[in-house]
Design a protein that fits this description.
The chain contains three helices and no strands. The chain is mainly alpha-helical and 85 residues long. The longest helix is centred in the N-terminal third of the chain and has 35 residues. The radius of gyration is 19 Å and the shape is elongated.
């Protein structure tokens, strides 16, 4: 039983580390997203743009929330896998 507690503690530490590194990497991702949707690149503020451009703008805008969900699912999966073993 003691070994299970040690591996759970280690997995929690690794999960916290992955969470911190993931949240820090968002700071590098958000300027690129805002640069991609500016008027010189995708021009998402133009209401007369094509449907493909509008869909691309929506997809680019969803990068940051999906990245946060990815980080949270990895961290949750790590902790849950150690609890179930």
């Amino acid at each position: 039983m003691k070994k299970k507690g040690q591996t759970l503690g280690l997995s929690v530490i690794i999960a916290i580390t992955i969470f911190i590194v993931g949240m820090m990497s968002i700071n590098f991702l958000t300027p690129e997203v805002t640069r991609a949707i500016t008027a010189t690149n995708l021009d998402c503020s133009n209401p007369l743009s094509s449907d493909g451009t509008k869909l691309t703008c929506l997809t680019v805008d969803l990068v940051v929330p999906y990245f946060i969900l990815l980080i949270l699912s990895i961290v949750g999966g790590l902790v849950t896998a150690r609890l179930l073993l």
